[in-house]
């Protein structure tokens, strides 16, 4: 028998806090926190560090967490303005059997390793990736250098992005879910 959603949420958050990830709670709420996420090795994002805002719904783990990048990242499937991520894949495949480690150990690394320019949230990134791959690589690296270096990732980034409301992020997620479900989550090699 599965434990209550609130107990499961508390356990998952505590496990994440006790791991190698840096986790900061916001306003002492256990359902909302920020995690430092390092770009995966052997990707254009290697060496970058992003602050990821995580909000757990009251129905977690039965419903997936909401995630967004706080500091800027150049990626076809991440909205540059809001940090919103095309969450179709995680929402479609989410199961109460998953936990927060799946988000940080599987979903986000795959998102950065295998961008999908055919269903973009950042059309400029998608266009460059398809038509000018070398320029795309250079721009990703410029963004990493400017916005995602360990020493530059501070709470100032949090303050700059606070103007983006949750409704804006929800709009990004709902727009992405209106697209073709079959190809929205598939990663291009």
TrEMBL record:
UniProt-annotated catalytic positions: 86 (glycyl thioester intermediate)
UniProt keywords, alphabetically: ATP-binding, Nucleotide-binding, Transferase, Ubl conjugation pathway
EC number annotated for this UniProt entry: 2.3.2.23
Sequence ranges assigned to domain UBC core in this UniProt record: 4-149
Disordered: annotated segments: 150-189
GO-annotated molecular function: ATP binding; ubiquitin conjugating enzyme activity
InterPro entries reported for this sequence: UBC, UBQ-conjugating_AS, UBQ-conjugating_enzyme/RWD
Gene3D superfamilies: Ubiquitin Conjugating Enzyme
Keyword check for Cell membrane: no
Acidic residues bias spans: 156-182
Any Pfam family hit: UQ_con
GO biological process, one term: ubiquitin-dependent protein catabolic process
Protein family per UniProt: Belongs to the ubiquitin-conjugating enzyme family.
Function (record text): Accepts the ubiquitin from the E1 complex and catalyzes its covalent attachment to other proteins.
Protein name as it appears in the record: E2 ubiquitin-conjugating enzyme
Species per Swiss-Prot/TrEMBL record: Kalanchoe fedtschenkoi
